[in-house]
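Example record

The entry below shows one chain as it appears in the dataset: sequence first, then structure tokens.
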Amino acid sequence: MEGRAYQIFTAIQILAACALVWGLATWPSPWNVQRYIGTALVVVGISCIVMARYQLGKSFSITAQARQLVTSGIYSKIRNPIYVFGAVMITGVILVVQKPALWIVLFIVVIGQTLRARREARVLEAAFGDAYREYRRKTWF
């Protein structure tokens, strides 16, 4: 994703993150331990997603593409930090809204992200070969 499409997509994500934080801050339930923990998880999740997106730079894309192998920053420890911290964020949302049925949503998202990560791994391995296999060996998910 490049140019104008990248900027529009990023702007939509920023607006969505702001709307999510505002919605959770004004959610009509009492502030208890669960809500505080959930809010903290949402803030950590969003912050880490933003950091990962920034570190990924022009390599970010919606579909699996092999532009360059990013192995620095948070990517030096986690191969798919956007997926990991997306799950952290969703966990936080579930804790804030206190709707147990939403745990099913998290389960479905984790399965989907795992399948997507595997697809991306195949594309990266085909493009970068041994360099990607070595990177995969040194990192988590």
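Notes for this example: Residues 46 and 128 are 29 Å apart (CA to CA). The longest helix spans residues 103-128.
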